[in-house]
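Protein modeling request. Please complete all fields; requests missing the sequence field cannot be processed.
Requester role: graduate student
Desired output: 3D structure, token encoding
Chains: 1
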Amino acid sequence: MIKAIFLLLLVPSVYAADVVQVRYVDAPLTYSAEGVVEAAKQSTVSAQISGRVAAVNFDVGEKVKKGQVLVRIDATEVGQTLNERRAQLAEALASFENAKSTYNRTQYLFEKKFVSQAALDKARAEFEAAKSRVDARRANVGIAANTESYATVVAPYSGVVSVRHVEIGEMAYPGKPLMTGFDPRELRLTVSVPQYRLEAVKANLQEGAWIMLGKGQALRPSAVMVLPAANPLTHTTQVRLEFPSDSIGIYPGMFARAEFSVGHAEKLLIPASSVLRRSEVTAVYVLNQSGKYELRQVRLGEPSGSEIEVLAGLSTGEKIALDPIKAGITRSAE
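Delivered output (334 residues):
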């Protein structure tokens, strides 16, 4: 994350190790937008046939590789249908061979003037019909065989199981969800940026964007994209920030914040550690002209790394205690 360079002037006195003189500095202006981590590649595999769930090979949180079997469905009924279709194909082939022989024989007799044209036409029609029945039965066998393959549900890509929808023994039917998974290497954060901020955000999009997670963790996105459409109700535009592929411990649904650099401004910044917080009161210990500490309430702005902006309560050049606890003890002893 881009940090401002702070000019800290230590005071040469008995309090030199404890106080700092603050100055206005040229600090970056940022715009923050909150969002939720989502997977760019996430899907739910569903059953395509009816049957009882015979095996569930993975559970939530487990990694799977592309092509590994996730769920098996008992395909006994489908297998019986396939056998029936194969028997029908064999019957059609037998009828076809008979019709073919009849047609060839009738054609020979017709050439010898032993049968009429009508007999030849009838034999030809029966031959063509038998051939069509074979084609239909062969197609039915292919459909049944393909349907039987649906009993084995495999992973469409490598990833992590996020939701398990079924247990062994449950009844599956076409469309019933079985498992949901995602690819942890392709995560992104989508945030909404208002129209009046969009141009400033786009001005320094690639170098001035960061993804902020909990505990101050900051990641530079591998790519940033502004979607070419705006919400007509909120007048906001979505911006997508891609997580680095080597990100660890990040999952869909986590809260995150996007921070964009939108310019620079003069700010009065102090170390965040110098702020004393008591309930809703925020204050700092100021070293007065008499060399004594006095507690002064301040109004704070947005944090900037280890520093925080002061909106009211302090003036440039004043000296504050770096350690408010130690300053409080010193004041009590005076």
